[in-house]
Specification:
40% helix; 267 residues; alpha/beta; 12 helices; 8-stranded parallel beta barrel; TIM Barrel; globular
Length: 267
C-alpha cells in the first residue's frame, strides 16, 4: 500500500510554526510543498563555498543540511547566515558516545537554533533516552533523528562490522528500540522507509538520504531511490547532495528535483 502523500509533515517543523496558529491549513501547491521537504546537503569544505552555493539556490528549497565536513571546517558560526536568511537547518553530526556526553552535545546543538539533528541509534536506548531528556523544558526544541543504517552500507559492509542480518532487519530492530524510548524521528534509506513508516505511524519524521534522480551517478551510495519513489514509500524529507551541489547548474538541478517531488505529491 502506498504512503498517503497528503499527510502533512509535523507542524512543529514548519518554518512559520506558532502554537497559537490553526494547525490545519489548506493543502499547499505541490511544488511549494516539495520545496519544504527537500533538504540540500551543504557538504562543502568551507563557509565561503557553502554560502555561495546557498545564494545560487535561493528560493529553491527551505532546508539545508550542515554535516561533519562543513561544521568541522567552519564551526557553529556557519549556521548564523542560514538562520538569518530564514532557512531551516538540519545539523547532521551523528552523535554517538556515552549517554552523558551525547546529552551535553544535544543541549549545545539545541542552543544553536537548528530544527533537526542526528544521533546514531546504535548508541543504545540509554543514550537515546538521555538525549531526549535533555530537551525537556526547551521551547520549540529541535527534532531528534536516530540514524539507523547508513545508506552507504550494503550487506557486505554490514557483515564486515559483525552484523550478519540484512540491513532491513537491522533497521527494524533499531527503530523498534528507538520507539520504546520515545523517539519519533529516524534517518533510513528508501528501501526501509515503508517499513519504518508502518512502525512510526503518521507522527514519524522520516528523513531519507541516498536520493538519486534517474540516470544520476550513485557515487558511494548503495541503497538509493528516486525522489518520487522515496516520497511514495513514506519519506517526510529527502536529503540530496551531489546531484545538486556538483551539477553544472545547481539551481536547475534542484528545480528539476522539486518538480519531480511535486508531481509525486500531486499524483
Amino acid at each position: 500500500m502506498g504512503y498517503d502523500l497528503d499527510m502533512p509533515i509535523p507542524e512543529r517543523l514548519n518554518p512559520s510554526f506558532s502554537p497559537n496558529r490553526p494547525t490545519a491549513p489548506p493543502r499547499p501547491d505541490p511544488v511549494e510543498a516539495a520545496r519544504k521537504r527537500l533538504i540540500v546537503a551543504l557538504d562543502a569544505p568551507d563557509a565561503r563555498s557553502a554560502l555561495k552555493l546557498v545564494d545560487r539556490l535561493d528560493g529553491r528549497c527551505q532546508w539545508f543540511k550542515v554535516g561533519l565536513e562543513l561544521f568541522t571546517a567552519a564551526g557553529p558560526s556557519v549556521l548564523q547566515p542560514l538562520a538569518k536568511k530564514g532557512y531551516s537547518i538540519f545539523l547532521d553530526l551523528k552523535f554517538h558516545d556515552i549517554p552523558n556526553t551525547v546529552a551535553g552535545a544535544v543541549r549545545s546543538a539545541a542552543s544553536l537554533g537548528v530544527r533537526m539533528l542526528t544521533l546514531h541509534a546504535g548508541g543504545g536506548p540509554a543514550m537515546l533516552t538521555a538525549a531526549r531528556a535533555t530537551l525537556a523544558g526547551i521551547e520549540n526544541p529541535p527534532e531528534l533523528l536516530a540514524v539507523t543504517v547508513l545508506t552507504s552500507m550494503d550487506q557486505a559492509q554490514l557483515s564486515a562490522t559483525g552484523l550478519s542480518r540484512p540491513p532491513g532487519d537491522q533497521v527494524e530492530i533499531l527503530v523498534r528500540m528507538g520507539l520504546a524510548t520515545g523517539m519519533h524521528g529516524y534517518v533510513c534509506s528508501s528501501q526501509e522507509v515503508a517499513t519504518v513508516r508502518a512502525l512510526t505511524g503518521p507522527e514519524g519524521v522520516l528523513v531519507v538520504p541516498g536520493i538519486r534522480p534517474a540516470g544520476a551517478d550513485t557515487g558511494d551510495q548503495k541503497r538509493i531511490a528516486t525522489p518520487a519513489d522515496a516520497l511514495q514509500a513514506g519519506a517526510s524529507y529527502l536529503v540530496v547532495g551531489r546531484p545538486i551541489t556538483q551539477a553544472a547548474n545547481p539551481a536547475e538541478a534542484a528545480e528539476a528535483i522539486v518538480r519531480e517531488m511535486g508531481e509525486a505529491l500531486d499524483a
